[in-house]
Amino acid sequence: MSSFDGLFSLVDSLLGQPAAGWLRKHVEVPEGLLRFSWHEQALHRVWLAEALNLCLLHKLVEAVPDGRRYVEEQALQGRKVVFDHGAIRTVDWPVNGELPRGRQAFSRLLEPLGFTDVRTYPLTKLNMTGWGYRQMDLPEDIAQFFVSELHPGRFSEAFQQAVTRVIGSSLDPLQAVHQSILNRLTLTRHCSLSEAQALLPALYQAFGRQHGVVLEADYQCLLAESAEMAWISTEGNSFNHLTDRVQDLEACVAQQRDLQRPMKDSIEVSASGRVMQTAYRACTVTRGLVDATGQYREHAVPGSFVEFIQRKVDPDNGRIDLNFDSSNAQGIFKMTDSKA
């Protein structure tokens, strides 16, 4: 079995063969992975990191029909998408059910896979903070994670009470057996294939909604002060978006507009001028909320979306600029604001 066959067999163990085959056909898998041999008794963390990223990309395109269509259209043009990064939102609040507070719920699983938070991004307009988590074995090749925290302490008391009611019921998808494997990865950078197969479903589940039913009144209270917290109340820690790294963003945007896709109005350009981003508008999803009479009613709310990014070379080091940009991020976050 080749190393890439092994990778997709690991994906298959979670998602099944049709999904694994779809990912192999449509998503660029970095050749740099081949620097790390595939040993079933001592599997390097890069393989598990890449398997998780592939599974999460598939999870998002399943939830965002525009995203699946975009990826499949790229394949028809002879191109596989290049997974640049995924983004998740967390809540910096002491009452979080079984979950660790804020981004700690994800640093505990990303760090054993080789990801390190390399830079902090103040998202002041949103009362949030972001961190870029980069995989240090293959930083240019394995998709990064943009992990943000919302700070309820900067909002009203009524807002804070609603946050407590919403996320206070959160369950932890990671059990002791999963933590034991993560500890081994931290110490040795390796685990067995059977351990990877046991751990991957729990990691995958972590990128979802862990709390229970939400009251309509709480949703409206949150929405009045923070579209981002309202989004978290219905979507939890799901991928907020995934990003395709393209060579020419303006050409990509022109093509998507010609196809009448739901594009953001403008391109965000970083302060350095080297990172340019834009996105589809968020898809609309149906979520149940409990009204004042105790009835469970369906509501149309913003879901997730696909983003597009172009990264230019940093002349100081001759490598592509892997950084994010606070202004860019805040502009992109508006894609899930139902009031925007």
Automatic annotation (TrEMBL):
InterPro entries in the record: HGLS
GO molecular function (one): dioxygenase activity
EC number: 1.13.11.93
Requisite cofactors: Fe(2+)
Sorted UniProt keywords: Dioxygenase, Iron, Oxidoreductase
Family statement drawn from the similarity comment of this UniProt entry: Belongs to the 2-oxoadipate dioxygenase/decarboxylase family.
Name of this protein: 2-oxoadipate dioxygenase/decarboxylase
